[in-house]
Amino acid sequence: MTFPALSVHMQHPREGFTLAVDFDAPAGLTVLFGASGSGKTSVIDAVAGLSHDATGRIAVGDQVLMDTAQDLHLPPHKRHLGYIFQDARLFPHMSVAHNLDYARWITRRPKDRTAFDRVVEMLGIGPLLSRRPARLSGGEKQRVAIGRALLARPKLILADEPLAALDDARKGEILPYFERLRDESDVPILYVTHSATEVARLATTVVALDAGRVIRQGTAAEVLGDPGFAPGGLRDIGAVIEARVTVHHPDGLTELDAGGLPLLLPRVARSVGDRLRLRIAAQDVILSKTRPEGISALNILPGTVADIRQGDGPGAVISLDTAAGRVLVKLTRRSVQALKLDRGTSVFAVVKSMAVAPGDVGGAAR
Amino acid sequence: MTGWLGPQEWQAVALSLKVAFWATILSLPLAVIVSHALARWDFPGKQIVNGLVHLPLILPPVVTGYLLLLIFGINGPGGRVLEALGMGIAFQWTGAALAAAIMGFPLMVRAIRLSIEAVDQRLEQAAATLGASRVHVFATVTLPLALPGILTGSILGFAKAMGEFGATITFVSNIPGQTQTLPSAIYSFLQVPGGENEALRLVIVSIVVAMAALILSEVFARRLAKRMEGT
């Protein structure tokens, strides 16, 4: 019998509503995605065993963490977790080295110098080892917190908005570590966020929550490519496509291959041949009925209109099928009428190279 | 210093230090446990425990002393048991230490409880997710972070024990060399005509000891704070 890597079927009474969340996730990184107040933190705290009034059944592989039907509720310290908190939560009275070593020390495992050194190296925190947490920057704290969680030899890694407290530069510094975790370890990861960028880059599976219910589940491309899905408001929508790095041009641009279509982006820090995902925000795409010529935008993706969704406002979201995958485009209703767009209409999507935010590029596709 | 203080005064000072030291050391572990229980646990009768702990602070010390006499006096139930074990405390310095410990207990618990409540529970949760049982969380996170408050509580308890008068004199009387602590000695000297000088010298000693305790705790507290800031 095979078990899902992570199985969550839980209820939790909350003020105003009862949270009822059910999902089974495969291996890899599962993102719990939703606006604040949607119940993400209640779910992750129930998985960690930090919440006392959650009921239901939660299992990691064949290990049941909680099953109220069997009156089973493992305390947090027996769940073999690595929990990365938004606020790092390093122990202020211990050095960085002792923080990293805490889980091993408290469970009286023998020292494992190799594992310790490998994690320290991967996170680049060697120079910090003798410092106290009070002397670390936000990004440094978060890297130490990741290391501390990894060195607990977890069977499940939990991360609760680990980047939310950091500025954009620091986010860009930490995101790749989560990509590596996802791609290089077999430990399932449950990652909470309200950022579409993080979903696009990290998620193997997305579980979208709203008002305490699962409203969508699927891959990042499926969920973010769904024009009816905009938990963070229409501003936030944008499809995810996968591409492979083909050439780094001397003028600072990187050429990608997305399902046979060439894409030019500002320098991507990846090697030729690497696969990655990029998120194209729906508001950064324009449509043309004929192949545009003499314009500055470098990326032109031919495709056909698969769906048109009109909201209550002046806007509409067009789903476009291209060789690179599903692309979402936000237009005004007036443009939709002017272009006589309909299902099956052939169009060209134009994406400015510089419009793709660096934060939206990365992450080897798993 | 023996030249400056008479033998009776010296005895009183030494006895007070001994009484205060043991009263503080022996009640500290219990104070930490009770403080943790009051700060973090939910159990039936919590308010009753809280009330009992604070009772000596509110009751007249004479009443506390008399209750101790009823229970641990030679004819009291507790007293008989201790007597049978050869550990009688009535009219002994150990009795003075018990009285001082009970009087100082609420002060200790108040300071320690506040510092435990101030420990970020999110750090305790983090420790639990890393594999620490409740006892381990307490020993490795809560206790070290509450250390400044535990130190303050100990100093307060020690100072209270040095100065305890009402309960002590009621419970173990005022026997020079056995139960005559510093405050009892000051009181005795003031009862005899011409004893003002002796009393004044002891008052000076009291002030010096109290100041020393305060300065010592300040030094420790700074060291602890420095350790947190790190290098």
Describe the structure.
The complex is a heterodimer of chains A (366) and B (231). By secondary structure, chain A is of the alpha+beta class. Chain A has helices at 40-48, 96-106, 113-123, 138-150, 168-184, 196-202, 220-224, 333-338; strands spanning 6-14, 17-25, 29-33, 55-60, 63-67, 72-73, 81-84, 156-160, 189-193, 205-210, 213-218, 238-248, 253-258, 261-266, 275-281, 285-288, 299-310, 315-322, 325-332, 346-351, 361-362. Helix content of chain A is 22%, strand content 36%. In chain A, the strands form four sheets. In chain A, strands 7-8-9-3-10-11 form a six-stranded mixed β-sheet, sandwiched between helices. Chain A has a five-stranded antiparallel β-sheet with strand order 2-1-4-5-6, covered by helices on one side. A five-stranded antiparallel β-sheet of chain A has the order 14-13-12-15-21. In chain A, α2 runs parallel beside α4 and α4 (138-150) runs parallel beside α5 (168-184). Chain A starts with 5 loop residues before the first strand and ends with a strand. The mean pLDDT of chain A is 87. In chain B, α1 (7-40) runs parallel beside α5 and α1 runs antiparallel to α7 (134-163). Chain B has helices spanning 7-40, 46-58, 61-72, 77-84, 93-118, 121-129, 134-163, 166-172, 182-191, 196-229. The longest helix of chain B is centred in the N-terminal third of the chain and has 34 residues, at 7-40. Chain A binds chain B through residues 48-50, 75-77, 79-83, 85, 87, 89, 91-93, 95, 102-103, 106-107, 130-135, 148-149, 152, 158, and chain B through 120, 122-123, 125-134, 136, 140-141, 144-145, 227-231.
